[in-house]
Amino acid sequence: MRTGGKYAAASTLAIVAGLLVAGCQKQDGAPDGADAAVSGDTLAAKGSAGAEWLSYGGTYDEQRHSRLTKINAANVGDLGVAWVYELKTGRGVETTPLIVDGVMYATSAWSVVHALDARTGKELWVYDPGADKAVGVDACCDVVNRGVAYHDGKIYLGVIDGRLEAIDAKTGKVAWSVQTVDRSKPYTVTGAPRVVKGKVLIGNGGAELGVRGYLSAYDANTGALAWRFYTVPNPEMKPDGAASDAIFAKLGNGTWGKTGAWTRDGGGGTVWDSIVYDEVNDQIVFGVGNGSPWNARLRDPDSEGDNLFLSSIVAVDADTGTYKWHYQTTPRENWDYTATQTIILANLPLGEGGAPRRVVMQAPKNGFFYVLDAKSGQFLSGKAYVPMNWATGLDEKGRPIETKEARYENQAHLQSPGPLGGHNWHPMAFNPDLGLAYIPAQEIPQAYENDTRFTSTPVRWNTGIAFEAGLPLDPPPGTMKALRATLKGRLIAWDPVKQEPRWKVEHDGPWNGGILSTAGGLVFQGTLKGDFTAYDAANGSKLWSMNLKSGVAAPAVTYELDGEQYVTVATGWGSAFLLAAGYAVESPVPPALGKVITFKLGAKGSVPEPDAIPIEKKPQTAQFGNAKMWEAGLVAYSRNCMVCHGPFGVSSGVLPDLRWSPLTADQEAWDDVVINGSRASAGMVDFAKQLRPGESEAIRAYIVRMAHNPAS
Predict the structure, then answer these.
(1) Could you write out the DSSP letters of every residue in 12-27?
(2) Nearest Cα to 550, choosing from 493, 501, 589, 602?
(3) CB distance 583 to 711 below 8 Å
């Protein structure tokens, strides 16, 4: 815990008895001169983000603020490329690398782990868990992985197919592996585990497709399940033999009805990202995701209840997982407004007479910035950090004051934020010296409309939303440019005490990278367009920038070795936005660009130029079908294919652009992929259960029409 600074804690970190720093020899395979390995609770022993970066958020409080100052506002202009490591992937890269004992551990697509010499980028080992590529269709937001955890000589990895694995940090060999989910259901794991008091914490994803969410704790040494907390009631309102049983019997069950899609599909509420240990109160604070389906009146039709614990911040006992408190950011969640975005713990002058008060801060998808009391969960303040039209504010208890149109009961509503949120998974950071939270904010509106075919059509995306709402059958010329103009991104330095921005930086579009804050007075962020920039933390002025020739969604980290400070960030196209919104880029992006790029003062290296991708933008066959068939194709495509292949079939290049695919020229070849699943090993599974007779051919006809459309 940081002990200096205006908003820092008054007391120092208490080291748990028996957790000792071991004077071990240098681990085999580690670079010469690496720090001695540590045993026990590494984060408790080492405290905060200094020479090493030991956990996903840098410290237990997950402020992503480094104490290092050798790279600072005065000299950051001398930053240069020290080394580049190729991740050899063309899919999304969202990793937060860890740096432990001179070794960097970074993940890439499909949950592959790379161990590198943190000084040189030399590869030490690579571990590929060999996930079945067919599971990719269950990954709502690309086959990404956000990072690993470290504890007592082991790396802990959440694998996309639901496994949690312990890997020897020296050799890359698996020590143990457990399956954390029911593989018969569309669960995935993309988030980084956390290790707390000898337990590995991991959640899961899949709420868009119909699952029931939970957070699990496993013994770090053996992989045995220690406790589990479900976030949605048992569909039969029965106990699960879980840590959550008592609170559901007392409170949660009464916020749900007894019929509806939730009783069949699980209700959602997946814990797919933020999991934070509050050492002061000895509790785990975690964020809960959206409902399944999103549409509340289809999910739970015979109730008007809040549907706990959807879209909530929940605190549980660190040892037992039993409930302590909760705060629901979006009661009766209806829009994919998850509360899984970055949770940060800090001390703010909000106590009596301006005394420090320990708080929880979050800027979730719904567009409000929240400050809660960490011990009790009491709502302290909240205010919109992005433009919105679904609510006009928060009442005195922190409950959103919804607009009438937001529930889209009778007609479509073009809404902000949309399901990608005012802030998504990209981590925000907090500078305790300046008292500022740095939010990678965005504006991506979307039309919500009730899915009238929900009960009769088992579409792949089980949301209860008609994704085709607002999409014309024949987009006129200029449509893509007009759509891009609606997309905005910005970096906001937010004062959580005054609940207002101190400064803003406007970006050329949304889906920009996570944030790193440093005691050197710097804020680092990358952008979708590939610019990696250092800003003055106090006023937002640009101090240094370099284009990395690939999108930057991942957050940077910093560390120190042999007296030199380094800054590292990973690049790579992909993730939810570039798959679902191919129109956001003006020309297709090169696919195989994932890299780890490390900088230091005075370095003179460079980032390799990307390979060009030759794409012949040419329809593969003549138009066929009629207006009825094309409309049917638009609907079926939007509800089954659009999330990966983009509106109107317009791809960013990360996945093949269907408009120019040779498959469109041959119905038999097309159906072999779409119906028979002949490319399941590449992630394209069959849609035989989701498509009604004739819909596969209607989709093909629609895609061919889009290839001939002037807007293409």
Answers:
(1) PPPPPTT-----PPPP
(2) 589
(3) no
Active site residue 508: no
- Cβ(235)–Cβ(267) under 8 Å? yes
Count the Cβ atoms, other than its own, within 10 Å of residue 593.
26
The pLDDT tens digits of the residues spanning 597-634 come to 999 999 999 999 887 777 788 999 999 999 999 999 99
Contact predicate 686/644, CB 8 Å: no
Looking at 342-346, 394-398, 636-640, which range is the least confident one? Answer: 636-640
Non-local CB neighbours of 216 within 8 Å, separated by 6+ positions: 180, 201, 202, 203, 225, 227, 228
How many other C-beta atoms lie within 10 A of the C-beta of residue 563? 7
Q: Max CA-CA distance within the chain?
A: 75
Give the residue-averaged pLDDT of 133-158: 94
**The two structure tokens encoding residue 492:** 């906001």
In angstroms, the CA 295 to CA 412 distance is 13
Asked if 207 and 268 count as a contact pair (C-beta separation under 8 A), the reply is: yes
Which sign, positive or negative, has the C-alpha torsion 71, 76, 82, 83? positive
In order of 458, 664, 706, 708, 710, the CA distances from 701 in angstroms are 21, 8, 9, 11, 16
Is the CB of residue 300 less than 8 Å from the CB of residue 247?
no
Phi/psi of residue 708, each to 5°?
Answer: -90, -10
Q: Which of 117, 142, 336, 531 is catalytic?
A: 336
Q: What is the pLDDT of residues 262-278, one digit of tens each?
A: 999 999 999 999 999 99
Residue whose pair of structure tokens reads 């050799």 in the numeric block? 171
Q: Which amino acid is at 449?
A: E
Mind giving me the DSSP string for 511-556? -PPPEEEETTTEEEEE-TTSEEEEEETTT--EEEEEE-SS---SPP
d(CA 307, CA 292): 11
Residue from 267, 256, 294 nearest 213 by CA: 267
What is the reported pLDDT for 20?
Answer: 28
Q: How many residues does the chain have?
A: 712
Helices (H), strands (E): how many in the chain? 10, 39
CB atoms within 10 A of CB 351: 13
Asked if residues 119 and 140 have their Cβ atoms less than 8 Å apart, the reply is no
Local structure of 147: helix, strand or coil: coil
Reported as a pLDDT band with limits 50, 70 and 90, residue 582 is: confident
Strands lying side by side in the sheet with 531-536: 65-66, 515-518, 522-526, 531-536, 542-547
Spatial distance between the Cα atoms of 279 and 227, rounded to a whole number of angstroms: 19
Domains and their CATH numbers in the chain: 45-352+361-400+571-601 (2.140.10.10), 627-708 (1.10.760.10)
DSSP 173-225: -EEEEEE-S-TTS--B--SPPEEETTEEEE--B-TTTS-B-EEEEEETTT--E
SS3 content of the chain, % helix, strand, coil (to 5): 15, 30, 55
**167 token code pair:** 């890997």
For the segment 434-486, what is each residue's pLDDT rounded down to a tens digit? Answer: 999 999 999 999 999 999 888 766 777 889 999 888 889 999 988 888 999 99
Q: Which residues contact 505 (CB under 8 A, 6 or more apart)?
A: 490, 491, 535, 540, 542
